[in-house]
Amino acid sequence: MFTKGKALLAMFVTGLLLAPTMAFAAGSGGAPIVMVADTRKLTGIMAWWANLYNESHLYFTILTVILIPVIGVIFGVLADIIMHFIGIDLKSRDLAEH
Amino acid sequence: MEWLYILMPIAGVKIFWPGLIILGIGVGVIGGFFGMGGAWMVTPGLNILGFPMAFAIGTDIAHMAGKSLISTMRHGKFGNVDYKLGIIMLVGTVVGFEVGAQMIMWLERIGKVDMVVRWIYLGLLGFITWMVFTDIARRKAKDKAAIAAGQEVDKNATGLEWHKTLHKIKIPPMVHLDVAGIYCSAWLPIAVSFFTGWLAGILGIGGGLIRMPALIYLVGCPTHVAVGTDLFEVAISGLYGAASYTYKGRTELVAAIIMLVGAAMGAQVGAVATKYIKGYGIRIAFGLAVIGCAISVFLKLLPVYVPSISQICDIIATYMILGLVSALALYITIKMIQGAKNEIAMKKAKA
C-alpha cells in the first residue's frame, strides 16, 4: 500500500527519468540574432577587438576563453603577493569543524 | 567627469567603470566566501550600470569564470578543494545542465516559460532556506543537549544528517574522497550533480546557489570543502558557459576584465575569510543570502499579478540586492580583517 509521500516520490522520480526524453524531443529553439559592433568611434586595441568580433565569432571566442583564465591567474598571483606582504598565512587553515 | 566612463566596444554603451570595479569587489568577496558565482547579484548590477540584459548575462559568466578560478586557487592552497569529487561531479553537471537548457526550449514553445522558471526558483530558494535554518536549529539543540549532559560539544556534529542515509547506498563503484573525508558510491555525487545541473540549466544560473548546499546536505562535505569544491565546479562550467555565450556574440570582455580587477581582490578576501569563520557561521550567512535572493525573485513575480506596482517592485528588488551584497561583503571583510589582525598579532607574540 503506497503512502502519499511514496506516491509523490514515485511521480517525481518518473518525471525526472522522463525529463531527457522530453528535452530531446523539444529539439533546438530560439532564432539567432546577428549583432554587429559599431567600430566608428573606436581606436587602437578597442577597434581591433571590435573588428575581430565582427569578422569571426570563433576567433573572438577562442581568444576570450584563453584570456579569461590567464588574466584571472595574473590577478590572483598579484593579490597573493600583496596578502603575503601583509603577513597572512595563505597555506593553512586551523578550523576543522563541519 | 568624462574620464570615469568607458565605451564598450561590442555593446556600444558607455559604462561607469568604477561601478564595475566596486561590483567586482562585492561579488568577489561573497563568491569566494560562499563558493558561488553570484549571477543573481551581478546580472541586475550590470543591467543597472547600463548593459543590455543579453550582454549582462554573458559578461557576468565570463567574469565569473575568472573570479572562481582565483578563488579556487586560494581554497586549493587551504586544502578546501576535493578535485576528485569536483571532476566526478562535472560529468553530471554538464549533462544535467544541457538537459535543463533543452527543457527550457521546450517550455518556451508551450509558453509561460518565465512564470514556470520563477516559481520553481522561488520554491527552491524557500526549500534551501528551510533546510539551512533547520540544520542550524538542530545543531544548536544537539550542542545544548551535550552541555546539559555534561559532555563535550562535538565539533563535527551536524543538524541534518541526510548524507548518512545516502552513504548507505553501496552501488559500485565505491569511491574514497579523501579531502572531503567521504566513502560512498560514485553514483551519489553523479546523481546529485545531474540534479543540481538540471536545475541550474532550467533556471539559467551557474548553480553554486544549489550545489553548495547539495554538497553539504546530500553528499556530506564539510562546509569549507563544499565551498572550495563548488568554486572549482563554477570555474570549469563558467568557462564552458563563457565560450557558449561569447560564440553567440553576447560577451563584453572589456567589462569582464575591469570587473576582474575588483573581483581578484574581493575573491581573496572572501576565500581568506573562511580561515577565520566556523563552518556553521558560513551556513548562517549563506541562509541570509538565500532569503535576500528569494525576496528579490518574489518582487519580480509580483507585478505579473499586480501590473500597477511593477516599477516600485523593480526599484525595491534592485536596491535590496545591492544592499544585501554591500552588507554581506562588509561583514565578511570585517571578519577577515579581524582574523588577520589576530593572526599577525599571534605571530609577533611568538617571535
UniProtKB/TrEMBL annotation, chain A:
Residues 1-25 form the signal peptide. The chain crosses the membrane at residues 58-83. This is Uncharacterized protein. It comes from Solidesulfovibrio carbinolicus. Keywords: Membrane, Signal, Transmembrane, Transmembrane helix.
UniProtKB/TrEMBL annotation, chain B:
The keyword Plastid does not apply. Keywords: Cell membrane, Membrane, Transmembrane, Transmembrane helix. The keyword Iron-sulfur does not apply. It is found in: Cell membrane; Membrane. The chain crosses the membrane at residues 20-42, 48-66, 87-107, 119-137, 198-219, 253-273, 280-302, 308-332. Signal peptide: none annotated. GO terms for cellular component: plasma membrane. It holds the Pfam family TauE. It is a multi-pass membrane protein. Belongs to the 4-toluene sulfonate uptake permease (TSUP) (TC 2.A.102) family. This is Probable membrane transporter protein. The lineage of its organism: Bacteria, Pseudomonadati, Thermodesulfobacteriota, Desulfovibrionia, Desulfovibrionales.
